[in-house]
Amino acid sequence: MGEKALRPWDEVEVGEVHRSGPYAVTEEAIIRFAEQFDPQYFHLSVEGGERGPFGKLSASGWHSCSIAMRLMVDGMLKTMKSQGAPGVKQVRWRQPTFAGDELTLVTEIADKYPSKSRSDIGFLLAKHQLEDQDGTVKMTMENVFMVGR
C-alpha cells in the first residue's frame, strides 16, 4: 500500500481546525521532565507540589509546550509538507497541568502567506489551545509553520 501524499501549503485553508489527543499526563512523566529541564520543587515531587503554589504536583509549563508539540505533529504536521518553524509568537500558561489530566490540542489555521524569499514554501499562522478533559484551557500558543508548496 502506498503512503498518503503530504499536503502542500497551497491546499491548507485558513479556518481549518485540527484536534489531537487525548494525551494522558502522569505523575512519573511530570517528575521525569522536571528533573531534567525544570527542577523547581513544586514539579519534582508530590510533597513539593503540596507545598507549592497550586497545592499539588504540577507540570512545568515547558512540559505542557512539549506535549503540545507532540500533539501538533501527531494531529496536523505529519499530514503536511512541514519544513520547520521560524519561532513562537506567544505562549501563555493559563492553568496548571496536573497528573491525571487528559490533554487535547485544538489548532486553528488563522492565516497563511507565501514566503517572499523562497518560492518553495509558504507560512501558516497557527493558534493553539491545550485543553484538559473538562475543556479547561491550560495553555495557548501562536506560532508560524513553514510548509512546502
Quick overview of this protein structure:
With 149 residues, the chain is of the alpha+beta class. Helices cover 24% and strands 34% of the residues. The chain has a five-stranded antiparallel β-sheet, with helices on one face.
Low-confidence stretches: none
If you consult CATH, what is the topology? Answer: Thiol Ester Dehydrase, Chain A
Shape: elongated
CATH H-level superfamily title: Hotdog Thioesterase
Structural class: alpha+beta
Corresponding CATH architecture = Roll
Extended strand count: 5
The helicity comes to: 10-25%
What is the C-level CATH assignment? Answer: Alpha Beta
Element-level helix/strand string: EHHHHEEEE
Q: Averaging pLDDT over every residue, what do you get?
A: 96
Oligomer: single chain
The structural domain count equals 1
User: What is the makeup of the main sheet?
Assistant: 5 strands, antiparallel
**Strand order, biggest sheet?**
1-3-4-5-2
What does this structure look like?
- The chain is built from four helices and five strands.
- It is α+β, with helices and mostly antiparallel strands and 149 residues long.
- The chain has a single domain (9-148), classed as Thiol Ester Dehydrase, Chain A.
- A hairpin with a 5-residue loop joins β4 (121-131) and β5 (137-148).
- The mean pLDDT is 96.
Secondary-structure topology with pairs:
Layout: E1 17-24, H1 27-37, H2 41-44, H3 46-51, H4 61-75, E2 87-93, E3 102-114, E4 121-131, E5 137-148
Antiparallel strand pairs: 1-3, 2-5, 3-4, 4-5
What labels would you give this structure?
elongated, 149 residues, 24% helix, Thiol Ester Dehydrase, Chain A, 4 helices, alpha+beta
